[in-house]
Amino acid sequence: MDIDSSTLNAKEAYKLLIGSIIPRPIAWISTQSTDGVGNLAPVSFFTAVGRKPPKVSLSIQPKSDGLTLKDSFLNIRDTGEFVTNLATLPQIVPMHRSAIEFEPDVDEFDAVGVEKEPSTLVAPPRIKGAPVALECKVDKIFAAPDGLHHVVWGEVVNFHVRDDIYINGRIDFGALAPVGRLAAEYTVVDNAFVPPLTDDVMAEMAGRRMRRIDRNGEDYSAVDNPNWSASGAVAE
After folding, report:
1. Bridge-partner residues for 182, per DSSP?
2. Exposure check for the chain: N or C terminus, fewer CB within 10 A?
């Protein structure tokens, strides 16, 4: 099937993008408003864009009404700082709940039940229990013509890495159970390999569907849920 992207509206194009670009790493972003209110947001349009200096990129959409800028973006824009915390399975519930569109005066650390840890070089706190946290200062902000969609580049000014996973200058990712995004659902990274694989392993994997671990059926899709929003927000 060929789908002409010019025939798609934004929601339709978004559904195809999030089902095609998988798995996507999740930046669990912590920010702080100019009034000191903590905010959390999972961002899965996220990647690294530089090494020296190290930089990351976040793509941030408006809220589910399609018109209002997200609090996390406003905090990043107004303070010039944010922290990218690594999303892992032990914190999947508060991470998922942090996509709820809370009111701006609600401290989302308290609302989703995670504790704050002071950052070293930026004002926004990092998330206690996150094994890796990248403290960032805004490098550039790019705005789409509609003024509602933004890309943020942040320079990583400090890496916080839990002591037990820092080995000879690298991170022991095998000990982390990192969580990624599949369309509107999640996956936990629980295997690793270096090619080539043996023929018997390749034969075993060929055509095999992903194994669901949430007891939903094989044909389940969170995107089909009537409460699903292309903003990434979830219902309380």
Report:
1. 185
2. N
**Per-position b or e across 185-195, b if 16+ CB within 10 A of its CB:** bbeebeeeeee
pLDDT tens track for 131-163: 999 999 999 999 999 999 999 999 999 999 999
What is each CA distance from 132 to 98, 186, 216, in whole angstroms? 18, 19, 31
DSSP state of 114: -
Per-residue pLDDT averaged across 118-137, rounded?
98
* Identity of residue 223: V
Burial of 66 (0-12, 13-18, 19+ CB in 10 A): middle
The span from the CA of 19 to the CA of 122, in Å, is 34
**Domains by residue range for the chain, with CATH:** 20-224 (2.30.110.10)
CB 24 within 8 A of CB 32: no
CB distance 106 to 151 below 8 Å: no
